[in-house]
Amino acid sequence: MTNVIIEKITAKEVFKGGRIKVMITTMTNVSVGYDIIEIEDPKGAIADVENVIAPEIVGYPATDIDFIDSLICETSSIDPKVACGISISVARSASNSLDIPLFKFLGGALTTDLPIVSSAILVDKNKNELIPIVMAESVEELVHFYLKVKDKLSKKYDIENISGAFVCKDIFEEVEDIRTIIDEIKEDEDLDILLGLKSKKDIVKNRDLSEIDYLEVEEPCEFDGLLCTDSIYEESDFVKINPYEIGTITEMNYYINYIFEKALSPVIYGNNSSFSHIAVGFKVPFLRADLSSNVLNEVWNIERTIVNPNIRRF
């Protein structure tokens, strides 16, 4: 087997999604991998990649991701987004060198479980979101659901934002109507669908949440359904993970396992298609991404490569 040695790591500005972002590329003797990050100081990030981290990891095997990530962590004052971007680009170069998908490189060849993918379908000016959570048998069923619900919502709402969600004045005035629409699809398609809400603790205080099954807030509040919080709490059912706030893939894996040890479920939150592979590889049951992102489509691609795939339920 050929040793997969990191030969060069570069970073450059790219224009993507209407914004300047940074593309980090890892080149080995047999493969290439990349990741694109959005960061406030692109030029500073490029300098960190090429002048601080690259000299520390060039010459080492890309396939030893734990070791590479330990070297990244030892560098001083590196933004977690930069660390995550480099870690993903190295892991992608390693998986490409082995001619296997990233999720198999991270989780093994026998990985079969897929996460539920949920996206906001309605938002308001205060960034409150309504989120259907569909327990589908296949990704195709999930895609069909979103096409159907968007068709129904397009008859009621005029504005759709860049994230793929429709816009209203006040989410809480729309909950009953959205619940009705979802229940109609639930009956027509024979699907189990929960209705989720993303908001703030102070905003939901004293609100009627009887139609809500799943609630995303920054910290625990009084709620009878499934509760997702930003950090680990005893009252939580789910804990949100933003990979770009954690750092390397290895650090992410440790945190995910720690959440599982606390009898909670991690939720990966973000629009990078690599997160689909990380979720599958690390057995994360739930992915939250914008409908306009490529995350759901990437999970669909992953499903096609797996024998007897299984979408998780909760």
UniProtKB/TrEMBL annotation:
Alphabetical list of SMART domains matching this protein: Enolase_N
Gene3D superfamilies the record matches: Enolase-like C-terminal domain, Enolase-like, N-terminal domain
Family matches, as InterPro entries: Enolase-like_C_sf, Enolase-like_N, Enolase_N
Domain Enolase N-terminal positions: 6-106
The protein, known as: Enolase N-terminal domain-containing protein
Lineage, broadest ranks: Archaea, Methanobacteriati, Methanobacteriota, Methanomada group, Methanococci
